[in-house]
Design goal:
With 151 residues, this protein is mainly α. The protein contains 5 helices and no strands.
């Protein structure tokens, strides 16, 4: 029985089995490289499983706050309309629902940054770029510098 039956732990246990039981029994170097690649993919999936819903919800909240500030500062009617549209960030923690809200927030971030650029608001542009850097940092944490080792 797994003490912490999370997706993260299941994936990390798979990594442990690969490293401790499977890899030592494999002599073929190409297969060893493929196992190392598989280990990396599983570890990245474990990070994602442990954090992705929280990351998306945090980013959505930050983006909506930014969009509200951009709409107020620029007077952009399209941005105000996008903010007034149903956001879909309800209470559901089902991944597909959270991803839908996250995608809509991405569109809102794009529109907000565009409004900030059109209004020549360097402060808002800097804030929008900061949100983009945060998104990239989360993506990097998930991908973890993945590359196809041995190729």
């Amino acid at each position: 029985m797994i003490g912490r039956p999370t997706t993260e732990q299941v994936l990390l246990d798979c990594c442990r089995v690969l490293a401790d039981d499977v890899l030592p029994a494999v002599a073929d170097e190409t297969t060893r490289v493929r196992l190392a690649m598989l280990d990396k993919v599983l570890r990245n999936a474990a990070v994602r499983a442990a954090h992705e819903i929280a990351w998306m919800r945090e980013e959505v909240a930050a983006i909506r706050s930014y969009a509200q500030a951009a709409a107020a500062a620029t007077g952009d009617d399209d941005l105000r309309a996008a903010l007034d549209a149903p956001a879909g960030e309800g209470e559901s923690l089902h991944l597909s629902d959270v991803v839908d809200g996250y995608c809509r927030a991405g569109d809102l971030l794009s529109a907000s940054l565009e409004a900030a650029l059109d209004a020549d608001r360097a402060d808002l542009v800097a804030r929008g770029e900061s949100l983009l850097r945060e998104r990239l940092a989360h993506e990097s944490a998930v991908v973890g510098g993945w590359n196809s080792a041995g190729r």
